[in-house]
Amino acid sequence: MTDRPSTTPEIAWRNEPLLFERSRPGRVGVMLPPSGVEERPLDELIPAELRRGDLEELPELSEVDVIRHFTRISRKNYAIDLGLYPLGSCTMKHNPRINEEVVRYPGLSQIHPYQPEETVQGCLELMWHLERVLVELTGMQRVSLHPSAGAQGELAGVLMIRKALEARGENRRYLLIPDSAHGTNPASAYMAGFQVKELVSNDRGTIDLEEVVREMSDEVAGAMITVPNTLGVFEDQIVEIADMLHEKGAFLYCDGANFNAYVGKARPGQMGVDVLHMNLHKTFTTPHGGGGPGAGPVAASHRLADHLPGSLVERAEDGTFRLRTPSDSIGRLRSFSSQFGILTRALCYILSMGGRGLAQVAENAVLNANYLRKALEGTYHLAHETPSLHEVVFSDRTLADTGVTTLDVAKRLMDYGFHPPTIYFPLIVHGALMIEPTETEGKEELDAFVAAMKAIAREARESPELVREAPHETPVRRCDEARAARQPVLRWWPAEEEAAE
Amino acid sequence: MGSDSHRYLPTGSLDLEEMLEAIGVASVDDLFSTLPAAVRLTEPPAVEGPLSDQELRRFFRGLASRNLTPGEDVAAFLGGGAYRHETPASLDHLLYRAEFFSVYTPYQPEVSQGTLQAIFEFQTLISMLTGLPVANASMYDGASGFAEAVLMTDRVKRKRHKAVVSRGIHPEYRATLESYVQNLDLEVVEVGWDEQGRTDAAALERAVDDDTLCVAVQSPNHFGVIEPWEVAARAASSCDALSIAVVTEALSLAMLRTPGDAGCDIAVGEGQSFGLPVGFGGPYVGFLATRDEFKRAIPGRLVGETVDAEGRRAWVLTLATREQHIRREKATSNICTNQSLCALAATIYLALHGRVGLARLAEINVQRAATVRRRLFEAGDGLEAAFRGPIFNEFAVRSARPVDEVLAEMREAGVLAGVPLGPDYPELEDCWITAVTECNPPEEIDRLAAAAARMARTGTVETGAGR
């Protein structure tokens, strides 16, 4: 520790050791039932050569130890419950507690995925409801709830395009992807065996029709477009782009990561979209959990519905529900039906909002982003003049002569009690600060954030060192990421082994 | 309460006026001017709601009541890659902490040390259990983790094109692999089993050649039989390929020889048994561990140790140049969001059980399953062990009478006795698999044995009636 005055006093729990360092022989944190059967010597049941030795490396802790440990380390996290978490394109909104309550009903949480269909009618009905609602919201024909997260939904989508082309006896090589896209888009395209042609954004931050015309050929399978894009700008020529693709026998993939911006206001199905994935952990409030679990349902137009992954729930005439695989499905991408617990939370949220409420979600998300945009433009440089929807992107231009970078601003925001925005993304904006407040923030929270951002802009001129050395008030200060990558330490080792290495 | 007020939307009517004025527009609709008029909805979508919390409870309780709930309505002996295990109460209380569940990927380490430390502990625990030094921060589930493991070997062995895969691997894992590789230049060759129910070692040796990139075997396999990992390790090393150990019942790692110890290169599997409810299939948590030399080919996120500006120990996401947000199409995988909260659940679960609890829990499973296997074959005329190989907590049953008929009768007696193998293995259409865990107390075991005995008698009577 240095004697820096701005650093808060060291508190014991801030140095909470690892589980393994806390371990004390003879402790245990659970009470197990007796086996209740006549036990045989293990050697008679499983030959010794198939068994492992003692689990000596595992920690030994009481329930009290474990609860204190995780409670203490949890307090080193910034969370939505503490305040604004404006991580652009991640839609960090409030997580309703009723979702968490219903998902834990034993009649849902204790159901085994291999129970006979007639014993899981409630689960199937829940999935059927959710698909109906998502069809209504997206205007697509069918929705598979199978994919585990957005990126897997994307993979499903591009595999479906591949499958549809195969069914026509075609083998096209390219997918068109704008330079503003999420990194998962090109990564998913590649995993499906496609090559990527990048579409260069125009000075409005959108895709030009002419650019699509230029790149279009018989070798193009389709385009992957994010709506609104990662600049928070609606691709206002999407209908024309869709028409152009369809004319050439190609398909339009829509990345629905930012569906929160127009849910209830417009339907991708009416824009000519053929396949769309949604992130239930973004638009539909399922908790982000420190990086998952999410769920990435994939929706298809009539052109691609036969190729959807996994199984869909069908309702028979007698009112019973069954799982059926689409006729020319790309197959399964995971075991069992879906991230069912995430689907449950999403449906609970949707019903807690209703149709009008969901439209209001988009309205308030867009209102909040525009309020921040108006309050901060001038202080920070607006990347594009084009109207913003749910998020706004600033560049680092106004910081240029201060020696302070986007990263420094992000770190300094922590001292003011905020999680930083997404930074250095999209890649097409220099030093990007990508701010998405979401609809679950009230005006006073936004005002406090604006005040902090303005104060940091002032500090960047008056006391740049303060910003460059931030954060000062966090459990740890700036972390040496280069060292972590140069000499990777990816697990804990007992002291003697570490010494022996 | 105004008609537009909602519990999750803090902006009130006064705020709205002030904010619109500050922005300089007359109405919220003006902010949507970039949406082409042709695609804008004039009416809100037809979705039921808004419902109150009480109405939501009623709705979801209604759905729950239309399911048959194991442990409440029925005794369930179902496994096949999803296992019911007891969950300590303290686990869920910790998961309810908003500091864990309402946060995202720890891109900003200074305000995410809690998540990062927990993931580092998860990586360490998975490393200890698999006997391999490097484990990632999680995969979606065992099946997609398995597919990603094969793709990983494809990155290490670029010039090779063949994945040799045991048919003892969970059918849905193999189906997932087929989906992932359907457009890649990669062939999947499957190998069958021997009389013991283990992967046919001789056939495995014959299947590998110098075009083979990996050899994959599961233990306990889909029939519940424990396989020696060495078979995969040996076949792989004979042709300089990589071996993949697949695990669907993670609790078995507490009892069985580790993949690392047996010389396997990659261990991948499903961690659901560590504190996650079966929950109709998800969310679960995949794990993936490997040797140190392959750490840069690993998919997904990794947390590493470092120091902060004052020299204090800290944790960060690391080796990110493998990942999609940096490498885009050249990334090791497209995975972004993973199953972080589920990995946290597994970490807490393993911490609570620890060295003594986990070993004892594994033994309870082994002892109960062995007893049930014995009693089932004693009680049920016409039931026999499909395979004689050693088991952990699951085993295959062969039935003289049609499987569907027998399982339906058992259900009438309040027992879900197993998962039929026929749909995935036509040659095993007279078999099912039964799993036994600490969630099946002695009275459920008695019920299963009694149902089997009754079923055998009924079967005899019905057979006598000229069926």
Q: What is the radius of gyration of chain B? A: 26 Å
Q: Using only CA atoms, what is the Rg of chain A?
A: 26 Å
- Can you give the helix content of chain B as a percent range? 25-40%
Order of strands across the main sheet of chain A:
1-7-6-5-4-2-3
Proportion of residues in extended strands of chain A: 5-15%
Class derived from helix and strand content of chain B = alpha/beta
The average pLDDT score of chain B comes to 94
What fold name stands as the CATH topology of the domain at 99-352 in chain A?
A: Aspartate Aminotransferase, domain 2
Query: Poorly predicted ranges of chain B (pLDDT <50, ≥5 residues)?
Result: 460-467
Assign the CATH topology of the largest domain in chain B: Aspartate Aminotransferase, domain 2
Q: On the 0-100 scale, what is the average pLDDT of chain A?
A: 94
Tell me the strand percentage band of chain B: 5-15%
What's the helical proportion of residues of chain A? 25-40%
| CATH H-level homologous superfamily name of the domain at 99-352 in chain A | Type I PLP-dependent aspartate aminotransferase-like (Major domain)
Low-confidence stretches of chain A: 1-8
Tell me the distance between the termini of chain A: 28 Å
Counting DSSP H or I runs of 4 or more residues, the number of helices of chain A is: 16
List the helices and strands and how they pair.
The complex is a heterodimer of chains A (501) and B (467).
Chain A: H1 19-22, H2 42-45, H3 63-74, H4 97-102, H5 106-109, H6 121-138, E1 142-144, H7 150-167, E2 174-178, H8 184-191, E3 195-199, H9 209-215, E4 220-226, H10 238-247, E5 251-256, E6 275-278, E7 298-300, E8 312-315, E9 321-324, H11 340-376, E10 381-382, E11 392-395, H12 406-415, E12 422-423, E13 433-435, H13 443-462, H14 464-468, H15 481-486, H16 495-500
Parallel strand pairs in A: 2-3, 2-4, 4-5, 5-6
Antiparallel strand pairs in A: 1-7, 6-7, 8-9, 10-11, 11-13, 12-13
Helix pairs in contact in A: 6-11, 7-8, 11-13
Chain B: H1 13-23, H2 53-65, E1 75-76, H3 89-95, H4 98-101, H5 113-130, E2 134-135, H6 142-156, E3 162-166, H7 171-181, E4 187-191, H8 201-207, E5 212-218, H9 230-238, E6 242-247, E7 266-270, E8 286-290, E9 303-307, E10 313-317, H10 324-327, H11 340-379, E11 383-385, E12 394-399, H12 403-412, E13 415-416, E14 419-420, E15 431-435, H13 442-464
Parallel strand pairs in B: 1-13, 3-4, 3-5, 5-6, 6-7
Antiparallel strand pairs in B: 2-8, 7-8, 9-10, 11-12, 12-15, 14-15
Helix pairs in contact in B: 3-11, 5-11, 6-7, 11-13
